[in-house]
Design brief:
This protein has 420 residues and is an alpha+beta fold. It folds into 3 domains: 181 residues, no CATH class; 88 residues, SH3 type barrels; 91 residues, Alpha-Beta Plaits. It is built from 11 helices and 10 strands. It is elongated and about 115 Å long. The N and C termini lie far apart (94 Å).
């Protein structure tokens, strides 16, 4: 439908040009649109053929390794299979979009060539319609070349990041001997940012050269922004250097942290802030300087486990040693492994399930069940632990007291009768 409306608009413009005596131009517009529409349909057809190839060939090839369809789709987006898909990605991300950008010039040139106006068309392409001496020069050809360069550098940015990720993961697999690597097991953020700065920095340099922006033009823009930058520079620089410090190893995407009483999973780290998804699926952003000022806790930096204490109260007179044994046995039976092969409860490095005497309460003997729990499984697992503790105590007829207060009335005034 959109092409029908665009065609209607082109025909309307051509009709108006004819009414104003621009018959040749109106014919050129119609011929150009025929070429352009054909080119657009051709580019769309190429994208659809690539999608068909991706689903029919790439997915089947990658599924032969035993991976799930959802994992393959996520891996293709992340560049996990770059060693197999680099050429396909080049065609999809760079070649076809660049071809689409150049079809604009090609369609105009073909339409002009019908009436032997190709030289005039070339002059129009190269004409600087926006020309400020010693500042900037813009032409149709330069803008199209710049658009094509954008798609090419976008592919390079994706390619180098994917290769960096691939070789980093392969080196870690060889070092640890494990086949599966957790998302937060290696810090890629700093490398990603360095690659992005280099690639897009080269793109900006190319744009300056192509648009003939001299140093004086850059100085002119910088001078206009100098006042605003001066006021904001202090906080920006603080967050910038704190961000580099975080990316260098203190924090990784996928880590679980706690700051200002908020726990969550790190989704992204930038030079200004850290984005965290909390346990209730809310998204929060902390400035990098805020994390350092409040002494944030990285719950997964060392071994991905956190010590959790589940309070339990039993009645006075109960054999505490018996309670300790049955609770420990009940909790140990809940052990399982996640998809990366990690135990939900850490039983290594001197860690164990402990039932510790806490205090003498008003109504109960207070105990704590201390468990080293995998942080990512904490919420679900601790809820299950509490349920199992309750059921275990019920099965062994061990009373769980609750706070209560008895009031004894020794005597009622006037023997309970009101004097009138």
């Amino acid at each position: 439908r959109i092409y029908a409306w665009l065609s209607f608009a082109v025909i309307l413009i051509a009709t108006l040009l004819t009414w104003f005596g621009r018959t040749l131009m109106s014919v050129e517009v119609v011929i150009w649109w025929l070429f352009q529409l054909t080119a657009i349909q051709g580019v769309i057809a190429l994208f659809r053929l690539l999608d068909i190839y991706e689903k029919a060939r790439l997915y089947d090839t990658l599924r032969a390794g035993g991976a799930k369809l959802s994992e393959i789709a996520q891996g293709l987006r992340n560049g996990d299979y770059i060693y197999r898909t680099w050429f396909f990605d080049f065609i999809h991300m760079a070649f076809v979009p660049i071809t689409g950008a150049y079809t604009l010039l090609l369609s105009i040139w073909l339409a002009a060539n019908v009436f032997n106006l190709s030289e005039t068309c070339r002059d129009i392409f190269l004409y600087n319609f926006f020309d400020i001496p010693n500042v900037i020069q813009l032409s149709i050809a330069k803008l199209v070349v710049l658009a094509a360069a954008f798609f090419l550098f976008r592919y390079f940015n994706y390619l180098f990041k994917a290769l960096f990720r691939f070789f980093s993961y392969r080196r870690l697999r060889r070092k640890t001997g494990k086949e599966t690597v957790r998302p937060n097991e290696i810090n890629l953020t700093l490398g990603y940012n360095v690659i992005g700065i280099i690639v897009w920095g080269l793109f900006v340099i190319l744009a300056f050269i192509l648009l003939k922006i001299p140093k004086s033009g850059i100085s002119l823009v910088t001078a206009g922004l100098a006042t605003g930058i001066g006021f904001a520079m202090k906080d920006l620089l603080n967050n910038f250097f704190y961000g580099i410090s975080l990316m260098a190893g203190r924090l990784r995407v996928g880590d679980w942290i706690e700051c200002d009483g908020v726990q969550g999973k790190v989704e992204s780290i930038t030079y200004q802030s850290v984005q965290v998804v909390t346990n209730d699926n809310c998204v929060m952003s902390f400035l990098n300087s805020t994390l350092f000022a409040n002494n944030f806790r990285n719950l997964t930096r060392n071994n991905s486990y956190e010590l959790i204490k589940v309070p339990v109260g039993v009645a006075y007179g109960v054999n505490v040693e018996q309670v300790r044994k049955i609770l420990r046995d009940a909790v140990l039976r809940l052990q399982y492994t996640d998809k990366y092969g990690r135990n939900v409860m850490d039983m290594h490095n001197g860690h164990d399930v402990l039932v510790l005497f806490s205090d003498f309460g008003d109504s109960s003997v207070n105990l704590n069940v201390a468990i080293w729990v995998l942080v990512v499984e904490k919420v679900k697992f601790i809820a299950h632990v509490k349920e199992v503790i309750y059921q275990t105590l019920q099965e062994h007829n061990i009373e769980i007291p609750f706070p209560q207060q008895d009031v004894y009335i020794k005597e009622l005034p006037n023997n309970g009768t009101e004097k009138k």
